[in-house]
Amino acid sequence: MVTTLASRSVLIDLALLSDLVRPARTPIASAWARLSLAHKFLAAASVVVTCGMLLVGSWVAGWIEAGVVHNAAATAALYIDNAIKPHVQAPAAAAAGRSVKLEDIERA
């Protein structure tokens, strides 16, 4: 009988000790504990899907940005080839004996 009484006091002391040691729950932790398993799954899945959307969105935005830069560079190269190149070569033509008009250069 003595061992049973001593073991009960140890159990009671451990129960009191665990109440003292257990950290206080934050409002978020207590709200999470009250949720059903389906609601917990919904919350976790929402976080995962949101992170996935952010990653895929940033990846696609990078590809779009690279495409826009590439197209702008191609357009600028075409403009230089067709509109500016003849006028830049005009001083060399003038030195060869052909005349270059200022109006032609300004018009381009």
Ordered list of secondary-structure elements with their pairings:
Layout: H1 2-21, H2 27-34, H3 37-88, H4 90-95, H5 102-107
Quick summary:
The protein has 108 residues and is mostly helical.
What this model shows, in words?
This protein has 108 residues and is mainly alpha-helical. The chain has one domain (2-107). Helix content is 85%, strand content 0%. It has five helices and no strands. The protein has helices spanning 2-21, 27-34, 37-88, 90-95, 102-107. The radius of gyration is 39 Å and the shape is rod-shaped. The N and C termini lie far apart (110 Å). The model has no long low-confidence stretch (mean pLDDT 78).
Overall morphology? rod-shaped
Structural class call reads mainly alpha
Largest sheet: none
Distance between the termini: 110 Å
Total DSSP helices = 5
Order of helices and strands: HHHHH
Average pLDDT level: 78
How much helix is in the residues? over 70%
Tell me the strand percentage band.
under 5%
- Rounded to the nearest angstrom, the radius of gyration is 39 Å
Number of strands: 0
